[in-house]
Amino acid sequence: MTDATIRYGAVENAAGENEASVGDFFALMKPRVMSLVIFTALVGLLAAPVAMHPIVGFASLLCIAVGAGASGALNMWWESDIDARMGRTQNRPIPSGRVTRDEALAIGLGLSLVSVALLAVFANLLSALLLAGTIAFYGGFYTMWLKRRTPQNIVIGGAAGAIPPVIGWTVATGSVSVEPLLMFAIIFLWTPPHFWALALWKRREYTEAEVPMLPVVAGPKATRVQVMVYSVLLAASSLALVFTEVAGPAYTGTAILANAAFCWFAWGVYCRDEAAAQAERYGAEKKLFAFSLTYLALIFAALLVDAALRSAGWS
């Protein structure tokens, strides 16, 4: 595989040596990301002060999930050259040669149109427009332009991943209010420390792939400072949600404990110099990255618990 092939086309599977399976096409849609989208959108939908017919809610969530999958397919289509250069992504469907770039593009575009059109039918036009904007932002602006041009790619691009609870809320209410915007802020501010912890740990791979992640461009020290800053801002935004009607005792207790833990892990990353980090094989960075996944699950699960308590008649 030549550099030119990796840079502009990945592997086209022209010889048909590695036949694609259903699982390969599903992998194009980034199922892990899709599961997070479904979960946060579900929280936005159920936390809203409006009851929905379960079939309408299920169909709407399915449309949101398909839209997320479309974004993932478009992302893999465009970034197949980067994926081919990084150890953790080399076995993805396109760089491994099991799926062609043209197939990925067709799937991404087709699913985009279907998901947006059906969401407009099942829910409302505002929800469909938000989904369309999210796909265009992530699959187009972030993937095709932003990621390779600025070390703030994760910060700005995080807006796409933060939109699902807002879409879920608009599916139920047809409007936007402060509660879903705070949910948006939580995911938006969570994204930089989550990915920069990974980028510190995998800095060599990002350097070799020529992706201008913050540790590559600004260096580890500046990145550690930013991780700490965003962790504090994350704590502030998630605690602000305590003062809204969607938060109850489950969320309040969880937010206090989870944010204390998150800031503690972030402090561990902030305090490490590069020599110590390398000697420990980036132990602090790995811990923050791992806990950040648990953190988001806990925060949004607590909102679901409080929604269930309100439905049961608990104040």
Strand count, sense and barrel status of the largest sheet are: none
Q: How many individual helices?
A: 16
Principal-axes shape call = flat
Distance between the termini: 62 Å
Sheet-strand content, in percent, reads: under 5%
**Rg (C-alpha, Å):** 20 Å
Tell me the count of domains: 2
Structural class: mainly alpha
Give the name of the CATH superfamily of the largest domain: UbiA prenyltransferase
What integer is the average pLDDT? 89
Give helix % range: over 70%
CATH class of the largest domain: Mainly Alpha
CATH architecture of the largest domain: Orthogonal Bundle
Low-confidence stretches: 1-16
**Tally of DSSP β-strands:** 0
SSE run: HHHHHHHHHHHHHHHH
What name does the CATH topology of the largest domain carry?
Answer: Tetracycline Repressor, domain 2
Structural notes for this entry:
With 315 residues, the protein is an all-alpha fold. It folds into 2 domains: 175 residues, Tetracycline Repressor, domain 2 (Orthogonal Bundle); 139 residues, Four Helix Bundle (Hemerythrin (Met), subunit A), CATH 1.20.120. It contains 16 helices and no strands. The longest helix has 29 residues. The protein is flat. The chain starts with a helix and ends with a helix.
